[in-house]
Amino acid sequence: LHARYVLQLLSETRRVLKEMPNITQLSTSYTKEITVCGDLHGNLDDLLLIFYKNGLPSEQNRYVFNGDFVDRGKNSMEILIILFAFLLIYPNDLHLNRGNHEDYIMNLRYGFTKEVSKKYKV
Length: 122
What we know:
- With 122 residues, the chain is mostly helical.
- The protein has one domain (3-17, 31-120): 4-Layer Sandwich (Purple Acid Phosphatase, chain A, domain 2).
- It is built from five helices and three strands.
- The protein has helices at residues 3-19, 44-54, 76-89, 104-110, 112-119; strands spanning 34-37, 62-66, 94-97.
- It has a three-stranded parallel sheet, covered by helices on one side.
- Helix 1 (3-19) crosses helix 3 (76-89).
């Protein structure tokens, strides 16, 4: 995705996240399930497999992603782009919890900063 569109996506995502509370209460039942995922670590194939097996996020198909979206794998940016796009479309049905790899120092140590610099040199 061109850097211009990534910046627009990041800007809009930031705006939406600022409006959301720090703690979100969720409840579920047998009739309204929720898929909980964690530790994608930049592995796009894992995210695509989750969506293939469980369906794409929607009002009827809610998700919680428990952090560690980035680092280690080579497609952290693509994962963030996909998750942020779904968050903007379904802000009440896709929830993103921050993990320890969503930290500046961890990003420097485990590769996300280098990935961003390589893919978006501007």
